[in-house]
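W.,

You were right to be curious about this one. When I first looked at the sequence I had no strong expectations either way, so I just let the prediction run and decided to look at it fresh. Below is the sequence, 122 residues in total, followed by the output.
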Amino acid sequence: MDERPPAVWGNFPLSPLAVLAGLVLIIIGVIRTDPVLMTMGVGVAAVGGLELVLREHFTGFRSHTTLLGGIVFVAAVWISFYVAHVVLWACLAIGAALALPALWFFRKRFEKASGGLTYKLR
């Protein structure tokens, strides 16, 4: 496959608009020194980028195994630290314990979707 896989919603540029909206929120948050707006901007931009990464990875267009495993790690550390109030060293261990099987899963899914390739640069 030489073409990027199409989005479910067609030609509407939802992901780029989400990234743009996130950047606007970040800039407004920096100008107003509002950490809530900056955090919302990072979240909205990350969701826009994550959609493209998931679409490319699970259709076998391009491998994003490490990025997806890193997202699992960061999410596990964030949840265990801020929500469950676990000490940081344990949060890092939990993140690593969840990221390793996630890396294996994402690699196998890409291998299946791409017809046997374990990575694809272009």
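Here's what jumped out at me. The chain has two domains: 1-62, 63-122. And, maybe more interesting for your project: Residues 32 and 38 are 10 Å apart (CA to CA).

Coffee later to discuss?

I.
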